[in-house]
Design brief:
79% helix, 150 residues, Hemerythrin-like, Hemerythrin domain-containing protein
Amino acid sequence: METGGHIGQKGRRDVDIERFKKEHVDLLAAMTSLRELVQQGVRERAEPIHRQLSAMNSAIKLHLAAEDRMLYPALMKASDPAIARTGQQFQEEMGGLASTYLAFAARWSLAGKIAADPQGFRDDANGVFKALHLRVQRENRELYPLAERL
């Protein structure tokens, strides 16, 4: 492994694991901010909730694209079959969660939709963000240490 948490061969720096870790920290902080806004009242705080979701959507989409383009392929090319299988498994699992998240983002794409159905938004957000939180924890605990071994 190269220093700095990069996956690469022959001096190339293809995947910056430290960047992925930082993005996870930022995502968890954004989720905390969103939760605080929701606790202040969904209807009353629909505009700031919408702004927070919009910012998170951009960051999440970029993170997912980077994982798909760089992280998973690098893991799947590993000479260790267990690492390659794990990379494949995580990529397959993420597809379902990504679809769920994108559908959530589309459903709640306007502040007016959020304000019109506070409980529906709260229930939907709780389910989606719980799944994202669990996924982030799993990647931090299982996937990134494997990537750092390459």
